[in-house]
């Protein structure tokens, strides 16, 4: 079959020159001739000439159709078997689906063990400065006994001999005073909580105050004032009308309340029965 002459164009080829097939653009967009002449031109002898390796053309670059660009969840322009072309069928969505289908192996990173740091040893002066700051913070929050403050210093790793020196100095300037603390504690707990002497004595012991110091502070509460406090507690509870429905139940509840506050059972039963009769009458039972 004879060769087809290529029309000259902007490439500078002379009229009638034969062009090898590999030099013709794949998309036909060229000024070398009408694309309709390609079938005839492709059968020319020159078209069969293989291109030199350095000029061999690569595959044509194709632009993605609408909706097939990566990261766009549009509908694919092509439909294959099985209903292809649904939303998210191309681009990043397809790759993300493939990634999710493959389980990710857990990453392991070997950590080099850290060498333990040697504890920093403070000087006595540094420990004393640290201890003073601790004591001032504790006393600013609320009054505390010497035993409570010493426990806090030891918890903060202040040496015991330095803690003793600090507490003695604070006692000299009357920032730590167990006697004043005990007296204030007794008054406060009797007035705000209505506690009996036995309950307050137990609390003082927990704070490191006992013996003569505790007994001296508890002298502020005598038998008469203790019973008066208990009676006030019971009368406040008896203001509720429901307390007069069932005497046995009400008495049991009120005696339990006084027992938890440190009152003896005999005192509690006597005060509760008397107060209940005065409030609801002795014949109001059941």
Automatic annotation (TrEMBL):
Stretches with biased composition (Polar residues): 1-14
Gene3D superfamilies xref list: Winged helix-like DNA-binding domain superfamily/Winged helix DNA-binding domain
The keyword Cytoplasm belongs to this UniProt entry's keyword annotation: yes
Keyword entries, A-Z: Cytoplasm
Annotated segments matching region Disordered: 1-127
Residue ranges of domain RecX third three-helical in the record: 226-271
Pfam families for the chain: RecX_HTH1, RecX_HTH2, RecX_HTH3
Compositionally biased residues, Basic and acidic residues: 107-120
Comp. bias regions, Low complexity: 67-79
InterPro entries assigned: RecX_HTH_1st, RecX_HTH_2nd, RecX_HTH_3rd, Regulatory_RecX, WH-like_DNA-bd_sf
Comp. bias regions, Gly residues: 80-91
Composition bias type Pro residues, residue spans: 50-62
Keyword Cytoplasm belongs to the record: yes
UniProt domain RecX first three-helical: residue ranges: 133-169
Sequence ranges assigned to domain RecX second three-helical in this UniProt record: 177-218
Localization per Swiss-Prot or TrEMBL: Cytoplasm
Organism superkingdom: Bacteria
Family label: Belongs to the RecX family.
Function: Modulates RecA activity.
Record's protein name: Regulatory protein RecX
Organism: Paeniglutamicibacter psychrophenolicus
UniProt lineage: Bacteria, Bacillati, Actinomycetota, Actinomycetes, Micrococcales
Gene this chain is encoded by: recX
């Amino acid at each position: 079959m004879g060769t087809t002459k290529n029309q000259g164009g902007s490439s500078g080829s002379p009229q009638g020159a034969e062009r090898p097939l590999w030099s013709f653009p794949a998309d036909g967009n060229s000024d070398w001739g009408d694309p309709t002449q390609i079938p005839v031109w492709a059968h020319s002898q020159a078209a069969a000439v293989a291109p030199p390796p350095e000029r061999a053309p690569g595959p044509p670059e194709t632009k993605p159709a609408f909706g097939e660009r990566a990261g766009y969840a549009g509908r694919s322009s092509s439909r294959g078997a099985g209903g292809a072309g649904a939303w998210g069928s191309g681009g990043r969505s397809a790759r993300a689906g493939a990634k999710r289908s493959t389980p990710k192996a857990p990453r392991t990173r070997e950590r080099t063990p850290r060498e333990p740091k040697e504890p920093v040893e403070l000087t006595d002066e540094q420990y004393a400065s640290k201890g003073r700051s601790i004591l001032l913070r504790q006393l600013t929050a609320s009054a505390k006994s010497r035993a409570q403050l010493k426990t806090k210093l030891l918890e903060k790793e202040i040496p015991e001999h330095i803690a003793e020196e600090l507490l003695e100095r604070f006692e000299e300037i009357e920032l730590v005073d167990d006697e004043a603390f005990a007296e204030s504690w007794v008054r406060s707990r009797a007035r705000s909580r209505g506690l009996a002497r036995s309950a307050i004595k137990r609390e003082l012991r927990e704070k490191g105050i006992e013996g003569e110091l505790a007994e001296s502070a508890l002298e502020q509460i005598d038998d008469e004032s203790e019973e008066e406090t208990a009676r006030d507690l019971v009368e406040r509870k008896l203001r509720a009308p429901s307390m007069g429905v069932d005497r046995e139940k009400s008495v049991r509840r009120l005696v339990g309340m006084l027992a938890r506050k440190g009152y003896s059972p005999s005192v509690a039963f006597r005060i509760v029965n008397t107060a209940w009769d005065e409030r609801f009458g002795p014949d109001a039972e059941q």
